[in-house]
């Protein structure tokens, strides 16, 4: 990399030689810290120049000259439209110049992107970051009120929206441009800006951006169940991209073809497809959203060999394996993340697709989506309950939830992580930040787990109260707030109920007002009208009182036990 390398003391902490610890577990009994057993080589080492921003880092890894013209970055699976690395670079330059010179987007301005996956998504995000602006991405299936909350909380100065989602932004009053041309031609679009005359590097603004500057605000329910903006710096994003670059070099090649239906507004999709894989030079087939028949067709048509997925997709492949008529012989590797993958489903998948590797990983929005990784299929098969070993640059603690003391291998406690990828904090929420990040920078995950004598990480259960539905996080507190706004509901509590298809579904326990005849369907419809589809309450049970502790906290475990008893009784 050109330019003078500047080494930060923070980066040195992760690369310096560590004191002696268990060769297999990475555990140092003197400090109670588990260290990654893998160190980055010189090619992928940290740190980088302190004034290097995310967009420039990604662009610096693009194929050069003729190779960039020939190598395809993205293909739209529905239209077959493609964009080469050279065209993508040109689009980023053009849009960045237009944002800066034409729309006067400045360093620190927050730009909200509301769109499904598209071949423009990466160009939009990287153009925003290249002018020093801050990116915040929104789920296109969120309601207008949820979008409005994100606009207000993030302080968005500009929005970039898919035409079909524009109606959700109009009530906010935030200036908006479209991703593609509108039918009436009345609104400015990204497509038009890219086709403008700003496409040369000399037109690019030279905005000084430090790695410590905020790059993105991604929304996660965090550890307390209240929606919060996770503040990620350029250093965070560059660190996770180097890890993705390293992992791809370990297990993939430039000739590999990836399929992306994971939404790019989510940290998993944004970091993986929007940024990380561009550093490797591979081709990604983009789908707007997951659809099983369309996914199978795309794998066959484009000879896809890498499929980053979530457990419900892997379950769908298992359940429909006998009916699949497409040729999936090109598929070499399937990854699983965003939610736990059961050992049974993993075993069924390996039996039905024996030529395909299956590797599970673990991460959080607060860690840029990364934490653990399986370097080989052999390890994944040998440890089916684990989610891999610590990624390079990661350290971990397993902390006793009662005493706060670090625990040795095979002892269960709360998982804590430390890495250059760990977030700066929660936007405008010091209380939540201090409850999640300690004074030394350790991220308290809220997940109960352990690390075995070979350094493999296991997640036992979630300490935090989030419900995992189809890979999305659903906060019970948010649904309870909606329920309590109903005039005929006196009290309410929401719990997770295990579901084979989607992982978990939200179930509500409701205390009706005296004399009320409120029905289960009425409650379900009431909530559905105010939240995104994945957050909907799927089951309702009426109860006389919600069990609570002396401090007034809902005793969810009691309700979970009750729901299991009710289910068994019905069977």
TrEMBL record:
Gene3D superfamilies per record: 3.30.300.30, N-terminal domain of ligase-like
Disordered, as annotated region: 1-27
Keyword match ATP-binding: yes
Swiss-Prot/TrEMBL keywords: ATP-binding, Ligase, Membrane, Nucleotide-binding, Transmembrane, Transmembrane helix
Domain AMP-dependent synthetase/ligase: 70-427
Every AMP-binding enzyme C-terminal domain range: 478-553
Spans through the membrane: 119-138, 260-286
CDD domains on file: 4CL
A molecular function GO annotation: ATP binding
PANTHER family in alphabetical order: 4-COUMARATE--COA LIGASE, LONG-CHAIN-FATTY-ACID--COA LIGASE
Family: Belongs to the ATP-dependent AMP-binding enzyme family.
Name of this chain's protein: 4-coumarate--CoA ligase-like 5
Native organism: Cajanus cajan
